[in-house]
C-alpha cells in the first residue's frame, strides 16, 4: 500500500492553483470541474507519477474551522521535502513567498514554514 493522493483545504481554488504552480513550481496534473468546484491535482515536476496534492475547497464549516484553528496555533497543514532548504528558502523568498519561520535546525533535520496565502502554513524539511 502507498499514499497516492493527499488533500489540502484551500479558501480559493484558483488563487491556490496560481500560488502552488507559479510560486512553488508544482505542475497541474488534473483540473476537472465538479459542480461548483474543481478536482485540482498537482504533482512535483521531479515526480510526475508520485503523490498528487489535491487543492480541496474548504466550503464545509468543519473544514473552515479546522483550517482556521491550526493556522492560528501555528501548525503546518502539511510538509514538503526539499534537497537543500537554504537554496529553496532563497528561491521561494525571491518569488514572493512569505515565511513565518526561517530555516532552523531541529535535531538532525532543518525546517522552515511559509504561508500559502490560502489559509495554510506549510512546512518544508531537509532531512
Automatic annotation (TrEMBL):
InterPro entries, alphabetized: Glyas_Bleomycin-R_OHBP_Dase, Glyas_Fos-R_dOase_dom, VOC_core
Superkingdom, natural source: Bacteria
Transmembrane parts of this sequence: none
Residue ranges constituting the VOC domain according to the UniProt record: 1-127
A Pfam entry, by short name: Glyoxalase
Protein name per Swiss-Prot or TrEMBL: Glyoxalase
Organism: Heyndrickxia oleronia
Amino acid at each position: 500500500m502507498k499514499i497516492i493522493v493527499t488533500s489540502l483545504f484551500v479558501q480559493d481554488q484558483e488563487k491556490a492553483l496560481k500560488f502552488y504552480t507559479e510560486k512553488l513550481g508544482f505542475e497541474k496534473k488534473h483540473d476537472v470541474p465538479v459542480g461548483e468546484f474543481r478536482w485540482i491535482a498537482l504533482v512535483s515536476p521531479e515526480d510526475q507519477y508520485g503523490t498528487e496534492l489535491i487543492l480541496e475547497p474548504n466550503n464545509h464549516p468543519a473544514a473552515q474551522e479546522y483550517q482556521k484553528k491550526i493556522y492560528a496555533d501555528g501548525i503546518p497543514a502539511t510538509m514538503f521535502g526539499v534537497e537543500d532548504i537554504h537554496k529553496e528558502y532563497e528561491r521561494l523568498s525571491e518569488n514572493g513567498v512569505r515565511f513565518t519561520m526561517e530555516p532552523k535546525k531541529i535535531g538532525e533535520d532543518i525546517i522552515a514554514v511559509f504561508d500559502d496565502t490560502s489559509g495554510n502554513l506549510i512546512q518544508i524539511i531537509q532531512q
